[in-house]
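Thread: assembly with ligand

MN 10:42: here's the input set. Chains plus the small molecule as SMILES. Want everything predicted jointly, not piecewise.
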Amino acid sequence: MNLKNTVSLVTGASQGLGKAFAEALLKKGAKVVISDINHVQGAITKAEFDQKYGTSQTTFISCDVTSQSQLKDLFSKTLQKFGKLDILCNNAGINNENSWEETISVNLVALVQANYLALEHMRCDHGGKGGSIVNVASMSSFLPAAHAPVYTASKHGVLGFTRSLAEASRLGNYGIRINALCPGFVNTPILDTINHEETLGMFYQFKDTVKHLMDVFGILEPSIIADGFIQLVEDDSLNGAAMKITKSKGIHFENY
Ligand SMILES: NC(=O)c1ccc[n+]([C@@H]2O[C@H](COP(=O)([O-])OP(=O)(O)OC[C@H]3O[C@@H](n4cnc5c(N)ncnc54)[C@H](O)[C@@H]3O)[C@@H](O)[C@H]2O)c1
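BT 11:07: finished. Tokens for the full assembly:
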């Protein structure tokens, strides 16, 4: 897919990986809807992008992805603003073992809902023009993690859902490529959640175990994850792929 003049929607894009994905798309000439529950940081990011890429290339739309009505509005407003939707990146995510139901709601339930809303607009077999969806999973989609059982479950869920929906898309000729991005530890604010009992809950006692894992596996920078993201969006041969990104092996794929 040539990204020039395409329209993308990225959730959780005020900071961290979502912001890096939005900027990578802007560099390719795409128009980007930056969406996040954090509208204060969203306005700062929008202003930064305005300076670099021009005011017409982005819009910020505040949305809590766990609200069905806000999520629906997000898609309607995206279409109102830019007239189409080619790429969706479901990136919004949290790591909170204390509020574990919220973790499932943000990381998995909302992601499923956003995929289904995107299908409504994109499906070629329903009059749409096709497109590309990237669901942000994690290396936690493959490995156990004592400090984060529910986060891990949510990311296993994202991978299984993504691969299955990709298969449905292939068999049903939806014309939509749906792929999972599975990074290791990345230098973003979410990593700070391991330092707090209010986020790790009863698994706070394992915080040193995860710090040890970070030392062993290393911490990636968002720019390499953005490179992988762009590859998933641009490469028309990829559907149902699980792209892993680790410090030791860089960008590579899980072989099934
Ligand atoms: N950083 C890592 O080590 C790492 C590794 C693998 C996967 N991931 C995944 O990458 C994604 C992005 O995380 P990040 O590392 O940039 O963390 P981050 O905390 O910097 O960014 C997450 C963003 O999601 C937003 N968000 C949270 N709840 C939301 C909601 N209900 N509605 C809308 N937006 C909401 C936050 O405001 C924030 O801007 C997440 O899905 C995360 O699980 C991160």
